[in-house]
Write a structure and sequence with these properties.
Length: about 300
């Protein structure tokens, strides 16, 4: 049995994807769901959100093995072997991180080169193409995770179609391959921050296009479908937390763990509390749509 991967990607940069993965990972930890947060974006922002700068640099030594996802992929990339044992960082009893790496962009080149070669039934092409999934599965097993949350880089999103075909026509291999049952779960929108340089009207026009854009680009529908106020594919609207967000980066804590000592006073303290409720509802919505971590939302559980 493989561990489900919930992958997060966006078309537009800087729309709060990494912050979302970070907060959801902490929310699952608070709900006592064993979760692995995986940083597959070569920007490694998720890793930087979880770890202190010194810790991050220790994971990426100039020489020797890198204790990041890149380190696991290196033997495969160099052609000296298959993927190595996963290195994960245990953050709490429930939460672990598969650290990212700036060097990951090198592997992305290999990935795009090997993708067409799967059609030539090349075994290494299958090793490379399935490498991320296999490393994540091994890491999840090590942590005994119930779910994997993956922050994807911008180049890792067009992988859905064509895998089944490659797999069915491919050679017999002695390593596991993902089934390729990739299912779009929906989308999350980040609320607009009132800012002088960006009129609300422009934001609204952009948000209004999302339901149609999602149906066409992600679901592959040709008809844009009805445009309703409440789109079934929209999982949530995430609040813009304004200055609370920089506070989380400073304190290396999710918003809903901020205290007065971290600077969350007065209205900020209330907002931090509300954030717990909002992210819990978001986690619940994802659980309902995916079947992941159902136990956490049963009546007898922390979030019940
Ligand atoms: N809900 C939020 N409220 C306030 N600020 C936010 C929120 N989510 C994200 N931000 C801020 O927006 C900026 C971009 O967020 P983030 O890095 O999460 O986006 P991203 O989509 O992962 O970006 P990239 O495309 O570079 O990976 C960060 O400065 C972050 O603190
Ligand atoms: Mg990011």
């Amino acid at each position: 049995m493989s561990v489900p991967v919930i992958a997060f990607f966006n078309n537009k940069g800087g729309v709060g994807k990494t912050s979302l993965v970070y907060h959801l990972a902490w929310m699952f930890q608070d709900l006592e769901v064993r979760v692995l947060a995986a940083d597959l974006d070569p920007q490694a922002n998720l890793t930087a959100a979880f770890l202190e700068e010194d810790q991050v640099l220790e994971l990426w030594p100039q020489e020797g093995e890198r204790r990041s996802i890149f380190g696991c992929l290196e033997p495969l990339m160099k052609g000296t072997g298959d993927i190595g044992a996963p290195s994960i960082v245990s953050l709490t009893q429930y939460l672990a991180l598969m650290p990212g790496d700036l060097a990951l962009s090198l592997f992305e080149d290999d990935l795009s080169n090997q993708w067409p070669r799967c059609l030539e039934r090349d075994e290494r092409a299958f090793r490379v193409t399935s490498a991320f999934w296999r490393v994540l599965q091994a890491a999840a097993r090590k942590h005994d995770a119930e779910v994997i949350l993956a922050d994807l880089g911008p180049r890792l999103r067009d992988w859905r179609s064509g895998w089944k075909d490659r797999r069915d026509r491919g050679p017999r291999v002695d390593f596991p391959l993902p089934a390729g049952e990739m299912r779009p779960v929906g989308y999350v929108v980040l609320q607009h921050a009132v800012r002088a340089d960006r009129p609300v009207r422009a934001y609204r026009r952009w948000v209004e296009r999302i339901p149609t854009e999602y149906r066409i680009s992600v679901l592959g529908e040709t008809d844009s479908g009805p445009r309703e106020d409440r789109d079934e594919h929209r999982i949530a609207l995430v609040k813009h937390y304004l200055s609370l967000m920089p506070m989380t980066q400073e304190a290396r804590k999710p918003i809903f763990h901020l205290t007065a000592a971290d600077g969350a006073l007065g209205a900020h303290a209330t907002a931090a509390k509300d954030a717990f409720r909002d992210f819990r509802e978001l986690a619940r919505a994802i659980s309902e749509r995916t079947g992941v971590a159902r136990g956490a939302f049963s009546p007898a559980s922390p979030a019940g």
